[in-house]
Write a structure and sequence with these properties.
- This protein is mainly beta and 188 residues long.
- Helices cover 13% and strands 49% of the residues.
- A hairpin with a 4-residue loop joins strand 9 and strand 10.
Amino acid sequence: MFWIVAALIVLSGVAVFLRWQETFKRGGRDERERTVASLRLGDRLRHLGAVYEVVGAVVLNEGGFRWREYKLSGGERARWLRVESAGVQRLTLLGEAESFDVEGDPPASLVREEQTYRLDERGEAYLTRYGDVEVRSGERVFYYHYLGAEGRRFSVERIGDDGFVARLGQELTGEELLIEPSAGKGEG
């Protein structure tokens, strides 16, 4: 009987240690605590009075550099939250823009809604999708990200052989977003 009790105490100690180790790896955060870099399907975001739910996500990979774009539902139309972490985290909230047609590559600068945008970065990446996103994993994406005045952003992407998709938005700070984790452990 003594050995059974001793074994139970040792096993309990090991379980507590492993739980502590996992919590330490997460920086002491509860597993339900979310940041913009760890959003999951079903999580909710609040921004300037609007409430959005994460319904899909794509992870883009360009030669080992990865960033996420979360599809958000709520409001009149879908929005996208782009999360880039190259040294400094950059967040951009984007909405669908009017159609964008161009022959060849998009130009080095352009005007949309009386705002001039200059090409900030361009490249080619491959994506992995999660949830309600209208593209297939493994698709090749050609992207063109433009910067306007006061953190305004214009994004143009061509996915696979499809035409261009244009999105218009604004850079954000993490303090502008309130995250409400979902009860489940969705992907994303």
